[in-house]
Amino acid sequence: MLHANKGAEAPLDGQGLRIGIVQARFNADITDALAAACLAELEAMGVANTDIDHVRVPGALEVPVALQALAERGGYDALVALGCIIRGETYHFELVANESGASVSRIALDHQLPIANAILTTENLEQAVARQTDKGRDAARVAVEMARLMATLS
């Protein structure tokens, strides 16, 4: 019988997991903070630095291309998408937010590989700054939790 995961009852254990991170460079101050928080949390959960591949791409629309390449390469227990899209005065925000989000989800489903999506979509810079650390940490925790869950489901 399969039992539901009860959440944060036990500390997450990242030892032995292989994690790939794809970080957009656009809005670099925010994405660098997301990455720093994510990497620190992965380390705190026991993921070895040598088991983390961290690649950078120009922007949020390029994140899924690199995620796809990592997923096809194989050997990862989970991936992490990091980016920041801040609303501007044109429809470009909606296009980038919708397309990057849909693509990340499609890759996760196509490859049955957890992808923690921490591509921030905010109205302004202040909202992005307010979320950068917590969302980076959250992405690391989601990646480890989902990697462990997927191992029990396979």
From TrEMBL:
Binding site for 5-amino-6-(D-ribitylamino)uracil: F26, A60, L61, E62, C84, I85, I86, N117
Membrane-crossing residue ranges in chain numbering: none
Keyword Iron belongs to the record: no
Domain of life from the UniProt record: Bacteria
Entries under SUPFAM superfamilies matching the protein: Lumazine synthase
Active site: H92 (proton donor)
Function: Catalyzes the formation of 6,7-dimethyl-8-ribityllumazine by condensation of 5-amino-6-(D-ribitylamino)uracil with 3,4-dihydroxy-2-butanone 4-phosphate. This is the penultimate step in the biosynthesis of riboflavin.
Pfam families hit by this protein: DMRL_synthase
EC code(s) of this entry: 2.5.1.78
Gene transcribed to yield this protein: ribH
UniProt entry keywords in alphabetical sequence: Riboflavin biosynthesis, Transferase
HAMAP family reported in the protein's UniProt record: Lumazine_synth
Pathway entry: Cofactor biosynthesis; riboflavin biosynthesis; riboflavin from 2-hydroxy-3-oxobutyl phosphate and 5-amino-6-(D-ribitylamino)uracil: step 1/2
Signal sequence bounds: none
Binding site residues for (2S)-2-hydroxy-3-oxobutyl phosphate: E89, T90, R131
Keyword Transferase: yes
MF-aspect GO terms: 6,7-dimethyl-8-ribityllumazine synthase activity
Name recorded for this polypeptide: 6,7-dimethyl-8-ribityllumazine synthase
Catalytic activity line of the entry: (2S)-2-hydroxy-3-oxobutyl phosphate + 5-amino-6-(D-ribitylamino)uracil = 6,7-dimethyl-8-(1-D-ribityl)lumazine + phosphate + 2 H2O + H(+)
EC class: transferase
Database matches in NCBIfam families: lumazine-synth
Membership in a protein family: Belongs to the DMRL synthase family.
